[in-house]
Task: structure prediction
Amino acid sequence: MIELDNVSKAFGSKQILRGVSLEIAKGESLVIIGGSGTGKSVTLKCILGLITHDSGTIRVGGTEMNAAERETFLSRFGMLFQGAALFDSLKVWENVAFRLVRGPHKIASDEAKHIAVEKLRRVGLSPDVADLFPAELSGGMQKRVGLARAIATDPEVIFFDEPTTGLDPIMSGVINDLIRGIVTEMGATAMTITHDMRSVHAIADRVAMLYEGRVEWTGPHADLETCENAIVRQFVNGSTDGPISTVR
Result:
């Protein structure tokens, strides 16, 4: 479904991506791990077209991404942002239904609200939450609303950007379980970027580790714990001893 072939990106003299090659099969959940500054977010932004990669190719569904193809692709994806990224001035249901009422295929507000309430129910929130504002919700509830918005249009591809950042361990587990269940239920292709190993174990079918702008290792989730790559081992174990520098 998604293919990156030798993708590179620099900002001035700072090289971020150094030839990233990755494939994500249709219906697969790939989790990209790596420390801060290794290129995880830049990889995601390149796929979305928020920034333009310098070289290499990015294909979605076999089609190379360019300005003309990007609009078509954007109608097929959903995204859960790191900080939920809800609009404070809009009610919860309006946040969830944002693309339904403002996107290229607009639908009536009453129909959009009905869909929003159903998506909220899918992430464990009751209908009375729909008319609240984001400021009236806890962090965990805001994250659930963000997830409901991500699936509002029944997308083929869903991106998750650090989905458990700022959440306590219990709520992190709840969000991870919701993501896994929804991705499986929808048959969607999922790409998650995270440094939270609990998310990796809960969400991933396959794992890729970025290190210094390159794919250091990729393989099935089941192989992660037995991987002998020293960089992967250090990251997974959270050790200060190893090839990964602790000075950043």
About this structure: The beta strands are 2-11, 14-24, 29-33, 55-60, 63-64, 77-80, 157-161, 189-193, 206-211, 214-220. The first helix runs from residue 40 to 48.
